[in-house]
């Protein structure tokens, strides 16, 4: 029965909204799912409580419920309600309505921001889509059953009610999660066309939760990967950043390669990973990122993208120097070239681009270990990021480990010891100063005679 209804939904059958309201979800008690109200964030409890006291339905929804059942601490909490954005806005003083494609409300509570969305209606013939089927505007409100059907995967269509501590499950999401299966709600081809980013989310969630993508959901991914070209670069960048900072970046990228999606995301990634030295460098960087995320340490997007794109910048830099361009100018031209190429696919922000350039620009300076140059480099605000980048290069075999070790020791040494550690340039940087050639008639006498 449910399958028939879903098929009708994605044919945009006008009778589906009424039919969906009659679907009875599974009501799962706390004894089975294990989520007590004290396990969800205080802010999400307050938001749900305020909405329910005002006479609205309100539930913690999606990823937070999924992660709690899977034994993972959620990064953030979303709430779904039958209140409209304007009604939500009236209830919370510290809130704002955002979004154009789908209007939502951000409710600020202490350090937390809770994203509150209104139940979405089923699609109809009036739904605004592009020629590929991607939804461009989605501000028609509906019932909870319709909202559940509009969600992408069964494990994300879960609603937790803090007041009763029950999970409302319309599409066997809890069962799929326990069976380690990632299953799409509705026809996968249609759902990917509605929002191509779902293909990336499928890979990310499968890697993060150790799930097997259902064959029906996996098969169309490679065929439809080109649809990612129609996704706004800013949204693609946000999704890529989530993937790379999920704590499972290595598993995600390996799965992206298996699904054939990496060429649609980072066009240069194939080239990088085909270089033996570049491949080791990238995987070391991603393993380092995963370790930091799992340890609860901060991750710099600028550093991360600098590692992913470094070997393309390096190849361009070397090619320019081989053509006779000055080294410093060649490096800056190479940096600009690589980042401009990426901007066509990923809307890397100016702040992150600036961080990438600073890290790259420091690398040649680590080669200079004579005179005042090492002391000046230690004073640079981005020195630590530049050094961490250098150490990754050393671990991958790109530069001698001795160079990274020297800088580590130099940074820790006292001022007197640093002077004894300086290393003359290989070509004899302790060059004797050339004597200035005196102008004819120069010197004290010449100066004096010139005044007469």
Treating each run of at least 4 consecutive H or I residues as one helix, how many helices? 24
Termini distance? 112 Å
Proportion of residues in β-strands: 5-15%
- Arrangement of strands in the largest sheet: 1-10-9-2-3-6-5-4
Instruction: Tell me the Rg in angstroms.
Output: 29 Å
Whole-number mean pLDDT: 84
What profile does the largest beta sheet have?
8 strands, mixed
Number of strands: 12
In percent, how helical is the residue content?
Answer: 40-55%
Q: Overall 3D geometry? A: elongated
Which residue ranges are poorly predicted, with pLDDT under 50 across at least 5 consecutive positions?
1-18, 428-433, 442-452
Describe the structure.
There is one protein chain. With 452 residues, the protein is an alpha+beta fold. Helices cover 52% and strands 10% of the residues. The chain is built from 24 helices and 12 strands. It has helices at 2-9, 16-20, 30-33, 42-53, 63-69, 85-91, 144-150, 173-178, 188-194, 197-209, 215-224, 233-244, 249-259, 262-265, 269-273, 276-294, 301-322, 327-343, 350-362, 373-378, 383-395, 401-412, 415-421, 443-450; strands at 26-28, 58-61, 78-81, 95-98, 104-109, 112-118, 128-129, 135-137, 158-161, 166-169, 181-182, 212-213. A hairpin with a 5-residue loop joins β4 (95-98) and β5. The chain is elongated. The termini are far apart.
């Amino acid at each position: 029965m449910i399958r028939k209804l879903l098929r009708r939904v994605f044919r945009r059958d006008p009778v589906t909204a009424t039919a969906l309201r009659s679907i009875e979800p599974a009501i799962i008690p706390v004894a089975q799912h294990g989520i007590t109200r004290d396990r969800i964030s205080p802010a999400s409890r307050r938001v749900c409580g305020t909405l329910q006291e005002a006479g609205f339905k309100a539930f913690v929804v999606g990823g937070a419920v999924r992660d709690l059942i899977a034994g993972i601490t959620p990064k953030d909490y979303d709430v779904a309600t039958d209140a409209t954005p304007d009604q939500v806005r009236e209830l919370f003083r510290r809130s704002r309505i955002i979004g154009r494609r789908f209007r939502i409300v951000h409710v600020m509570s202490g350090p937390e921001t809770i994203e509150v969305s209104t139940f979405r209606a089923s699609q109809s013939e009036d739904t605004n889509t592009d020629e590929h089927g991607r939804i461009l505007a989605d501000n028609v409100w509906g019932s909870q059953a319709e909202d559940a059907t509009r969600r992408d995967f069964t494990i994300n269509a879960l609603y937790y009610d803090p007041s009763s501590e029950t999970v409302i499950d319309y599409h066997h999401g809890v069962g799929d999660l326990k069976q380690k299966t990632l299953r799409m709600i509705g026809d996968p081809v249609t759902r990917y066309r509605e929002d191509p980013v779902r293909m990336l989310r499928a890979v990310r969630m499968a890697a993060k939760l150790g799930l097997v993508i259902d064959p029906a959901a996996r098969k169309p991914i490679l065929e439809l990967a080109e649809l990612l070209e129609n996704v706004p670069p800013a949204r693609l960048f946000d999704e890529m950043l989530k993937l790379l900072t999920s704590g499972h970046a290595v598993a995600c990228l390996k799965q992206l390669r298996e699904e054939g999606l990496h060429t649609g995301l980072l066009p240069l990634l194939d080239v990088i990973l085909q270089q033996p030295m570049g491949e080791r460098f990238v995987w070391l960087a991603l393993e380092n990122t995963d370790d930091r995320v799992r340890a609860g340490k901060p991750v710099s997007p600028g550093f991360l993208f600098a590692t992913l794109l470094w070997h393309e910048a390096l190849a361009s830099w070397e090619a320019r120097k081989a053509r006779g361009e000055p080294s410093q100018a060649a490096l800056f031209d190479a940096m600009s070239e690589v980042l401009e190429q990426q901007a066509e696919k990923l809307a890397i922000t100016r702040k992150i681009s600036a961080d990438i350039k600073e890290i790259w620009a420091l690398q040649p300076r680590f080669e200079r270990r004579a005179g005042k140059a090492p002391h000046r480099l230690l004073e640079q605000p981005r020195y630590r990021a530049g050094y961490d980048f250098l150490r990754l290069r050393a671990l991958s075999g790109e530069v001698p480990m001795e160079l990274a070790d020297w800088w580590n020791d130099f940074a820790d040494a006292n001022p007197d010891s640093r002077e004894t550690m300086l290393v003359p340039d290989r070509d004899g940087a302790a060059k004797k100063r050339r004597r200035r050639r005196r102008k004819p008639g120069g010197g004290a006498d010449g100066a004096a005679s010139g005044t007469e």
